[in-house]
Structures are given as structure tokens and as C-alpha cells.
Specification:
The longest helix has 16 residues. By secondary structure, this protein is mainly beta. It has 1 helix and 28 strands. It folds into 2 domains: about 90 residues, Crystallins (Gamma-B Crystallin, domain 1, Sandwich); about 250 residues, Tachylectin-2, Chain A, CATH 2.115.10.20. Bound molecules: calcium ion (4 copies). The site of one calcium ion has 7 residues, from loops.
Length: about 400
């Protein structure tokens, strides 16, 4: 209930700040009418009057209690480089409602007849006005180690979340989160599926958008990442759907899959004894551009070989491609008959339900419908694996997975 309230407040803030006339609106200041440029860069400023008039108050630090200015600010501007959460209540409490003011809105102020602001907090992402920067991830302890989906080796599936500010968070499955990196918005692929560096600890693989380079961030075994190492010198921007897969070749080393954009071919890049990638081999001769997501699921069919899920763009169907002893995929099988294009993320972190079978978590996008109405992004839905390699019906669990920029 509280979560829904926060979300509602955030959505309301978005509406108001685009100036829909709900009582508070963004106005482009003109020199004659307003003085919002009096607010120095690096500050949040509030005025006692509407439209940046009257006396001005300013701060460059979060303020839990506005004191003499409590419930006195009628217009404000955010000239800092971060989000300003403008709360109706003291002590940054989101429950009374809040507005998330974008960074660097020089010359644009919000104004209204009611003075209700009681505290102001500066944060790097809009999420943090109402909740933690990272999402709440919960998983059960699996009966045995699965070789992937577990950065810290506690048999609990964990998730890495990138926030809008490019920070990486390790969420171990207990609802908590820990910062493990920053500056990751320059990466347009994040994938992890086992141990590529050959030290028994799970690693993260990323592609750098600007250079097409592939980087390995070795896991330290605690959920943290060590110094990155180049494993692909360039050219990876010609590939799509780079997916760490687990072991398809049967040598016990994790492999990587990728689709060649120009040909629709599916290539496998085998992991080697040195933690680099060996010479690629063709495992799908064409047609893979018709898929808009690949998911390394681990062994869902129970034969000891890693298996792949793929989402068909045109139909929204989810297919299972079983790994075989020849190092290729067998005949595909339908796992989901449609609707899977309503998922922004397909998160494969192994068995999070604790029954020994790999599961799949998803986060919805704008296409996702609840009670017949679309437009419900940010919901976590958990699909439990069944012993046929397919999935049980999804369970919608948590609507607070919005405002993130990638999950692995
Ligand atoms: Ca874990
Ligand atoms: Ca490793
Ligand atoms: Ca299998
Ligand atoms: Ca399971």
C-alpha cells in the first residue's frame, strides 16, 4: 500500500512538472516577470511568492527540516546537477507526496498557490526520492550450486542492477543492495552467466558502446567486481544480443552467444582455459534477427546441458532451444505462447525459488497490461521453472522496479 502511494506521488510529480495546469506548473521565466536566474548554479532555490518572486531561500545540501521556511516556498528552481526531491513532509518522508525536480532546470521554475514544502533531498536518480536506488530482490537458497546467477557463492540467486545514473548495485536476494561500481552507462550490454575467468567466481561481461570493446569484470566472490580486463578488442557493435550462456560446448567453461546483425547468424564464442574467448563457431545459420532477446537459462531440460530461451519479436512468443551433446541446439519447443514483448528485462539467475530448477524473472515495460489496461512498466514477475523445461504461470510481485537502466 505504501509503495503504491509513493509511486502515485512520483507519477503525479511528472504530470505537474510538465505543466498540465493541475495547480503547479513549469513556466519559462522571462526577465521582466521573474528572477529565477538569481538562483546561483549549484543551488536549489525557493521563493516566498509564486513565479520566483518575493524573498529567496537557497541550499546546496539536503535539508530535513526547512525551519522558518517550512511550508513557505511557493515557487522553486533546481540548478544543481542532481535530482531535487521536494517533499510535503519533513525528514524526506515520501508518504505525504513529493515532486522530483530534474537536474539543471535553469530558467524553469515550478510555481503554485500552495506552500507545502517541508524538506528537500538531493539524489542521483528519481527512484531515490521514494525508495532505494536498487530494487528489492528476494530469492531462496538453492539446494545446490548452479554455477551461475550467484556472485557471492551463497547458493542464493542474486541480481545486478544498473540505475539511471550508471551505478551498479549488487542485490543478494535478501532485499538489500550494495554499490559495486559506477560509470556503467557507457556500456550497452551487461551479461553474466557463470565464471569466464576460471577462478570459480562469477563474472560480468560488458560491451562499451563507444568502442565496441568487450570487457570482463571478474567477480571477487563477494558480489564485488575486480579490475576489468579486455576480452574483445573491438567490432562487437556489429553483434546484437550478446548473451553469456554457460557451457554449451561441454568442456565445463562458460561460453558466449551473439547474433551477427548483418546476417542473422548465431555465433558461439567458447570460453578458454585462460579466461579469454576462443575462435567463434557458427551454431545458427540465419534467422536469429527475428529474435529480440536471448536468455541463457542454465539446464532447464535436466540433461546437464545449458539451454537457451529466445523471444520472437513478431509474435512475442518465448522458445526453448535445448543444448545438445553436439554443442548445438536441438528442436525448439514453445515455452510462452505470446505477450512476452511486454517485458523490458528477462533476468536469468538460476533457481531463485529453491526447488533446484532454474527460474526466470522479468520486469515489465509500457506494453504490460493489468486488468486490461496497458502502461504498467516496472513490475517484477517471477516465473518458476518446471521439470519440462517450461515455466509455470507468472507471479506479479513488486511494482517498484521502475527507473532502472539494466539488470543482469
Ligand atoms: Ca548469491
Ligand atoms: Ca571468475
Ligand atoms: Ca539442457
Ligand atoms: Ca526454481
Amino acid at each position: 500500500m505504501q509503495n503504491r502511494l509513493t509511486r502515485g506521488a512520483a507519477a503525479f510529480a511528472g504530470l505537474v512538472l510538465t505543466g498540465t495546469g493541475l495547480g503547479l506548473g513549469v513556466v519559462n521565466a522571462t526577465p521582466a516577470a521573474a528572477s529565477s536566474y538569481d538562483c546561483p548554479a549549484g543551488y536549489f532555490c525557493g521563493w516566498s511568492g509564486e513565479s520566483a518572486t518575493g524573498s529567496m531561500w537557497k541550499t546546496s545540501k539536503s535539508v530535513a527540516d526547512l525551519g522558518a521556511w517550512d511550508n513557505k516556498i511557493r515557487s522553486y528552481v533546481n540548478r544543481t546537477k542532481v535530482f531535487a526531491c521536494v517533499y510535503e513532509d519533513k525528514n524526506y518522508s515520501p508518504w505525504g507526496g513529493y515532486f522530483a525536480q530534474d537536474p539543471n532546470s535553469a530558467g524553469e521554475y515550478s510555481s503554485g498557490p500552495d506552500a507545502t514544502t517541508s524538506s528537500i533531498k538531493f539524489v542521483h536518480t528519481e527512484r531515490e526520492c521514494g525508495q532505494t536506488a536498487y530494487p528489492g530482490w528476494y530469492s531462496e537458497i538453492a539446494p545446490k550450486a548452479q554455477g551461475f546467477g550467484d556472485m557471492n557463492g551463497d547458493r542464493r540467486a542474486d541480481v545486478i542492477a544498473r540505475d539511471d545514473a550508471g551505478r551498479l548495485w549488487f542485490t543478494p536476494g535478501t532485499g538489500t543492495g550494495r554499490l559495486i561500481g559506477s560509470g556503467f552507462n557507457g556500456m550497452n550490454t551487461l551479461t553474466r552467466h557463470g565464471d569466464l575467468s576460471r577462478d570459480g567466481r562469477e563474472d560480468l561481461v560488458t560491451r562499451e558502446a563507444a568502442t565496441g570493446k568487450l570487457w570482463l569484470y571478474p567477480g571477487t566472490g563477494t558480489g564485488s567486481l575486480g579490475s576489468r580486463r579486455l576480452i574483445g578488442a573491438g567490432g562487437w557493435n556489429s553483434m546484437s544480443k550478446i548473451t553469456a550462456f554457460g557451457d554449451l560446448t561441454g568442456d565445463g567453461r562458460s561460453d558466449l552467444l551473439a547474433v551477427e546483425k548483418s546476417t542473422g547468424k548465431l555465433w558461439l564464442y567458447p570460453g578458454t582455459t585462460t579466461g579469454t574467448l576462443g575462435s567463434r563457431r557458427l551454431i545458427g545459420s540465419g534467422g536469429w534477427n527475428s529474435m529480440n532477446a536471448l536468455v541463457g537459462m542454465g539446464d532447464v531440460s535436466g540433461d546437464g546441458r545449458a539451454d537457451l530461451y529466445a523471444r520472437e519479436a513478431a509474435t512475442g512468443k518465448l522458445w526453448l532451444y535445448p543444448g545438445t551433446t553436439t554443442g548445438k541446439f536441438g528442436t525448439r519447443k514453445l515455452v510462452g505462447s505470446g505477450g512476452w514483448n511486454a517485458m523490458a528485462n528477462l533476468i536469468s539467475v538460476g533457481d531463485f525459488s529453491g526447488d533446484g530448477r532454474p527460474d526466470l524473472a522479468t520486469v515489465t515495460n509500457e506494453k504490460y497490461a493489468i486488468d486490461g489496461y496497458v502502461g504498467n512498466p516496472g513490475w517484477l514477475i517471477k516465473y518458476l521453472g518446471r521439470n519440462t523445461g517450461t515455466l509455470a504461470a507468472g507471479e506479479r510481485t513488486d511494482g517498484e522496479w521502475w527507473g532502472l537502466n539494466g539488470l543482469a
